[in-house]
Amino acid sequence: FMVAGFVAMFFLAMRVSNLSAGSDPDGYLLTARFANVGSLKARAPVTMAGVRVGRVEGVVFDKATYEAVVSMRIDPKVDTIPDDTFANIFTAGLLGEQYVGLEPGGSQEFLANGDSIEHTQSALVLEQMIGQFLFSKAEEGGQ
Prior knowledge:
By secondary structure, the protein is α/β, with parallel strands linked by helices. The protein has helices at 2-16, 126-142; strands at 28-34, 45-48, 51-62, 67-74, 86-92, 97-103, 116-117, 119-121.
């Protein structure tokens, strides 16, 4: 009974940390450039309409443009993503796990393997938002 409990805890921990062994190596690769990815990591979910359609494969820094380049592996069944889709970085859950959310556009052309998503929205960094709020309040008080 205890062994079954430990096995269940192991699978729960793997599920929560996005390290499940059943990751699909198939699919097609898309990239997107962001000014700030926050704490986005490899294996983070990529969602569309709240449904997981892929995973982040990697995040690298482009020293020529000073941007983060995010590689995403999309499920091959989801092959009709319009080429004017927006990619946003959102925060989910109490632990602040970040993921990529795709919002489809209205184009009749679709993204294919190796394409890049041009329209992106960077992660909101809580510290920057608080700093901007405090700065604006300090300016109001000084006038």
